Amino acid sequence: MSDIQISELNFYYPKAVDAALSSINLHIQSGQCLGLIGPNGSGKSTLLSILSGLLTPTTGTLNFTKNKNLSLIKYIQQHVALVPQEYAFYPQLSVSQNLQYFVSLCGIKPSAQKIQVPLVLQQCQLDKVSHQLANTLSGGYKRRLNLAIGLLKNPSILYLDEPTVGVDPSSRAAIIALLRELKKQGKTIIYTSHLLSEVQEICDQIIMLNKGQATQLELSQGQKVLSMAVEHTAINLWQDRFNALGLEFNLQGNSFELTLASYNALLPILDLIRHSPEPLHNLHYAATSLTQHYLNHVEKNDPTKH
């Protein structure tokens, strides 16, 4: 298994003035699942294309740390699979015929091919529809077939572009369960989706792309914000208390606003409030979702909003 290391990666499309990707630095550990999120046009597909060897960075480097003897392209061909958002199979062939055709392109021995086809049929729960024509499958089964084709060469690194878009709840659950199992097997996964709750559910780290720039989000994000209004005579006292706890705060008038790193950071504040003789005029706590944090970040970096 191999880590993925991206250093100072930039990419410009021909004749473009602005970079599609700018100063991207990522380290994805072997066996991790990285969630890649961002609005349309943010650079997600461009980055996946570079990771798949379909595009070459303008500047910067892409390395797979365990690759000692192969060229970058050869390593990608042998160890990496991309499952695109678009259906990547022949609709006029059956599920089994598609798998038998694509496994013949994987460069693996015929004996291994005979093992891989029934294995991915079972992994993706396609056994019952193996003889059905692909164009007659439901949307959920088509997504499973897309994923099955990507698994045929038993890749150590898997790129998934919107793998659950348009699927029914049963197929979504089956795909998510399979991804969890692939993680247990040590496979490295890069996962793009507009379903942020899904990304938060299965990913070990989350990177947001916006206008070609990458920002790492904590899995615990959104933000946890405590607001409280105190007596004017107690402002200095509460400043001292927050400083003693090492907490940063904003003060407007007699109102404090604190952004907390975790739920645990709330406990000593509540303990102070419980034992304080000074009355509070207002106390409010809110934890925003990852979705709201994402929207806030996109809006913050949108010049039309300022």
From TrEMBL:
Keyword Ribonucleoprotein: no
Domain ABC transporter: residue ranges: 4-236
GO MF annotations, alphabetized: ATP binding; ATP hydrolysis activity
The UniProt record lists the keyword Nucleotide-binding: yes
Domain of life of the organism encoding this protein: Bacteria
Stored InterPro entries: AAA+_ATPase (IPR003593), ABC_transporter-like_ATP-bd (IPR003439), P-loop_NTPase (IPR027417)
Family matches, as SMART domains: AAA
Keyword line: ATP-binding, Nucleotide-binding
The protein, known as: ABC transporter domain-containing protein
Organism: Paraglaciecola hydrolytica
Species lineage: Bacteria, Pseudomonadati, Pseudomonadota, Gammaproteobacteria, Alteromonadales
